[in-house]
Structures are given as C-alpha cells and as structure tokens.
Design brief:
By secondary structure, this protein is of the alpha+beta class. The protein has seven helices and four strands, in the order ααααββααββα.
Length: 152
C-alpha cells in the first residue's frame, strides 16, 4: 500500500489521472479541470511520467508542446479510480444529485451504474468498454471552469 501511495497518493495525481481517463490530453485542459497551479500540475505530470503511469507525446514542434497519454500501467489504475468514483457517488453526495457521469456498456447498450460488471449481460467492464455521458450539472461545472480559465 505504501509503495502505491508513493505513486498516486495525493489529490492532484488522482485528479490528473481522472482527466486522462476522461479524454483530456493537453496540459491546459488538465489544468483547467483539476484547478491545479501550473507548477503543481507540471510536478505531478513529471512524477507520473517518471513512475511509468503516463507518457509524453509531441503534438506541436514550434513551439514544442506535448500531450499526455496513459501507459498500460496507468490504464491498469482505472479500477481504483472507478472504486473512488463509486464510493464518492454513494457517500459524498446529496441524494438529490444525479450521477456525475453515466456509463453505458458498448457491447449491449445498457447503463452499468456504479458497477464494474454490466448488470444486463453480466460481463465485467473496463473503461475501454464504456461510453460516458456527463450529467448536465457536471458538464456545466466543467464548462464553468473552462470559461473562468479563459477570462484570466
């Protein structure tokens, strides 16, 4: 447990990984959605890269810019993110709030709720097997962070 926490045992690393699972790949978008300072984010990205969780890939030569992608090791962390999400959705929200993200099993088209097994067909699912839809509230929160960042 201690060695695992050395890699991902802080809020910022977990939020960076959440954004990568949600499809963000560039520094600015990850910064916007995590609300990390540029220095904090750069430090976490470097640490996650050094630990083999992510890789940098250039997307622009002039100026040199990189995007970030999960490695096999990084993708293997998804069950932990899923467990944190399920726990948070169950225990950290008001009953009137809907799920922040709904996941549909691509193979059968059914919502999997907070489970990691499709309740319709009984197949264990991973992130790559799911299509995500943001709740309107969560989509608005993300859009609000993007708009606030652009106003700075």
């Amino acid at each position: 447990m201690s060695r695992s926490l050395d890699v991902v045992g802080d809020r910022w690393s977990v939020l960076v990984l959440r954004e990568l699972y949600m499809g963000a790949a560039r520094f600015e978008e990850i910064q916007i959605q995590t609300e990390a300072t540029p220095q904090m984010l750069a430090t976490r990205l470097k640490a996650l890269e050094a630990d083999g969780m992510i890789e940098r890939h250039p997307y622009s030569e002039k100026p040199l810019r990189h995007e970030y992608r999960l490695t096999e090791k990084g993708r293997a962390f998804y069950p932990v993110i899923h467990a944190l999400r399920a726990w948070g959705e169950t225990w950290c929200k008001d009953e009137s709030e809907e799920l922040a993200v709904s996941f549909v099993h691509r193979e059968c088209g059914h919502d999997v709720g907070l489970s990691n097994v499709c309740p319709h067909c009984g197949v264990p699912v991973e992130r790559k097997d799911l299509d995500a839809t943001l709740s309107q509230q969560f989509a608005n929160e993300r859009a609000g962070r993007r708009a606030a960042f652009k106003r700075k």
